User: What shape does this take?
Amino acid sequence: MDFKNLKDRMLYYRSLTDYKVMPNCYTLVMLDGRSFSKLIKKKYKLPFDDSFIATMNTTAQYICQNVQGALFAYVQSDEISILLSNECDTFFNGRLTKMLPNIASMAAGKFNQIMMLRDLYSILHDGLELSRMEVIKTLYKHKLVEFDCKIWNVPSFNDVYAWFLYRQNDCIRNSKQQSAQTYLSHNVLFHKNVDEQIKLLEEKKGINWETEYNDGKKYGRFIYKEMKHMNVYVEKLKKDVPCDRTVWGCYPAFKLQEEKDKFSSLIDSIKKLRLKEN
Assistant: This one.
């Protein structure tokens, strides 16, 4: 193959792996924390740490705010699944070589920022009189986290629903196992399925998985935009003015297995809200 110059030749080679997602199709993004099981056992309370859950939720909200076409996200454990719209231009025109590293770096950057701030707050809250250098050393020892990212298309909305159902089924199983494994020994749980494990948990420890934990810890969390009435400070008027604003909220998930129609209606309402914004 003949090239006019060095630039054309180099850009041609680079373009050979510049794959894209298909336009006008639903796109799914999945972020997964790298080696988070070790991090959770070392840094957070088991079975479910509220600060870790809040950090994951805030990270998901941040990504949705900054990724073009984001409609909806589902958060469970150290995973974030995001649905991108099939009715608008895709983030970075669907170029995977741009989407994958940018979304993964957003997740890692936000998560690490929150953890650093919490470490600083903990130092101040404990009243430790540390020098500037000691604070720097403390933060320098902080282990940074990474996320991997996968992106793909699905052919229909039914496949969108199927993906989130699949991940929620995994969430429910993990939630039950995490609860049982926190309070019961490996020998007691050996060769027991998840339903047998939470039955033993109630019999031996008096902990009922169904009533002990909120829906967010059992079924995961949904992230999506809603219109909210709020007061916004207007500089020119020097006062708060009531207005309607769209905000990315976090809500406990409902059981997708039993609520497919509700899920479809939710996505439709999110799309309609998006059209109003545009």
Notes: The mean pLDDT is 91. The two ends are 45 Å apart (CA to CA). The longest strand covers residues 221-234. Residues 161 and 260 are 7 Å apart (CA to CA).
